[in-house]
Amino acid sequence: MAVRMLPREQWEKPLRALKCEPLKGKGPLNTAEWWIAPWGFVFTVPIEEPDDRCEFWALAALIDDINQSRPPDWPNDPPNLTIV
């Protein structure tokens, strides 16, 4: 089974749809980027150098973690997160 690597524009889109953004003030990591959800959940997105690609299943698991971290009182309106 081939590993499906997503370019930045494909993996960043669903994270931004969840209102997540890169975490300011954290230093860069060698193989990941720091991000934060609007309710304060901090996470890393695993990326491959030199072109910042992210593996499809890693992104799918990460989106699941983000959704599970959502506080019970937070609006539960996740968008359709089809990863192309």
Strand residue percentage: 15-25%
Rg over CA atoms, rounded to whole Å, is 13 Å
Low-confidence stretches: none
Indicate the mean pLDDT. Answer: 88
The number of distinct helices, counting runs of at least 4 residues, comes to: 2
Secondary-structure-derived class: alpha+beta
Describe the structure.
The chain has helices at 8-17, 56-69; strands at 5-6, 21-22, 32-36, 42-46, 54-55. With 84 residues, it is an alpha+beta fold. The chain has one domain (5-69). A three-stranded antiparallel beta sheet has the order 2-3-4. A two-stranded antiparallel ribbon has the order 1-5. It is globular. The model has no long low-confidence stretch (mean pLDDT 88).
Provide a compact summary of the structure.
The chain is an alpha+beta fold.
Characteristic key phrases:
84 residues; alpha+beta; two-stranded antiparallel ribbon; 2 helices; 29% helix; 19% strand
Would you spell out the secondary-structure blueprint of this structure?
Layout: E1 5-6, H1 8-17, E2 21-22, E3 32-36, E4 42-46, E5 54-55, H2 56-69
Antiparallel strand pairs: 1-5, 2-3, 3-4
